[in-house]
Amino acid sequence: MNDAEIGWIAAIIIGGLAGWLAEMFMKSGTGILTNILLGIVGAALANFLLGFFGIALGGWLGYLVAGFIGACILIFAWRAIKGRT
């Protein structure tokens, strides 16, 4: 979302797609709003984590890849926390 070429509407669409792909990959069974949130927050998380390794993903495809990676991380973390209670 830091790129000037990706606006809020595009972030919602790409975030929803990334969240949906992560949902299918991780078999989590979340809804559309959760998919959008997972994709957007996941993209921010993945860009932050990849920044430590000097990897910068930009543009629509980079946002989709980062959203997918971050959403998978968030789903995994949620399952790990939920499993402990």
Describe, in plain words, how this protein is organized in 3D.
- The chain has 85 residues and is mainly alpha-helical.
- The chain has 3 helices and no strands.
- The protein has helices at 8-26, 32-51, 59-84.
- The longest helix is centred in the last third of the chain and has 26 residues, at 59-84.
- The radius of gyration is 12 Å and the shape is globular.
Report the count of strand segments.
0
- The helicity comes to over 70%
Shape: globular
Rg measurement, Å: 12 Å
Please write the string of helix (H) and strand (E) elements. Answer: HHH
Q: In whole angstroms, how far apart are the ends?
A: 34 Å
Secondary structure class reads mainly alpha
Largest sheet: none
* Number of helical elements: 3
The fraction of residues in strands falls at: under 5%
Q: Kindly report the average pLDDT value.
A: 85
**Uncertain spans:** none
Gist?
This protein is an all-alpha fold and 85 residues long.
Question: Which labels suit this protein?
Answer:
mainly alpha, 85 residues
Present the secondary structure layout.
Blueprint: H1 8-26, H2 32-51, H3 59-84
Helix pairs in contact: 1-2, 1-3, 2-3
